[in-house]
Amino acid sequence: MDRKSFLKKAGFLAIGFSAFGKVVRAADDPTAFEGDCETTNDILGPFYREDAPIRYDLTTQTDRGSRVILQGQVFGDDCETPIKNALVEIWQCDADGEYDNTSPAFRMRAGWKTDNEGEYAFKTILPGKYKNGRLYRPAHIHFRVRADNHQELVSQVYFEGDPHINDDPWASHPSASKRILPIVLEDTKGNLTVRFDIYLKSNP
Prior knowledge:
By secondary structure, the protein is mainly beta. It has a single domain (3-199), classed as Aromatic compound dioxygenase (Protocatechuate 3,4-Dioxygenase, subunit A), CATH 2.60.130.10. The chain contains 1 helix and 14 strands, in the order αββββββββββββββ. The protein has one helix spanning 6-12, and strands at 23-26, 29-35, 67-75, 87-91, 109-113, 119-125, 131-132, 135-136, 141-146, 153-159, 180-181, 184-185, 192-195, 198-199. Strands 3, 6, 12, 13 and 14 form a 5-stranded mixed sheet that branches. A 5-stranded mixed sheet has the order 5-4-9-10-11, with no helix packed on it. It has a two-stranded antiparallel ribbon with strand order 1-2. A hairpin with a 2-residue loop joins β1 (23-26) and β2.
C-alpha cells in the first residue's frame, strides 16, 4: 500500500480513543492502588498481518538500526493483577520506514504469550519513519493485546523527544501522552530498553 493511502484507510480502521485515568495510592492502605489505569487505544493502521510468529527476537544480522529490548507486564484493570497467557503482538517498520506486508519471514512482526507474572519481552530495532502526505509519522511500534475475559487492546507506543509527535494527529492526542516512552540506556555496554506496561479492561 502506498503512503498516500495510509491516512484515508487508517481513518476507517481507527479504534476510538479512551480517556487515560490515573492511579493513586489508597488513603487507608499505602501499598494498595485505586483508580482507572486503562491503557488507551490507538489506530490499527493498514499494515497489520494475522499469524505473526511467536518469538522473542525480531532482528536479523542484516537489520540496520539500534537494537532495543521492548518489555513490560500486562495487568488487569485493578492495576495490579498480572494477566498470564495474554497474547501480545507487535509490528513495526524497519529502519527505512518499510513494512513487510507479504513475505513469509514476517519481518519486524512477532507475538509473545505472557508468563505467570504477566511479563513479555521482544528484541527489536528502533523503527524508522515514513511520510503520510507531506508529514512524517513519528517512530512507533504497534501493539495488539488479547486475553481471556478482557477487552482487546489495539495501541501504539511512541518515543520521547521525537520531533514529529506534535504534528501527528494520533501521537499528539492527549490520550497518547502515557504511551510516549523514554528510551533508556540500560548499562555501560550501550544496551537500550523501552518499558511499556499494559492495563486491560475486563469484559462487561
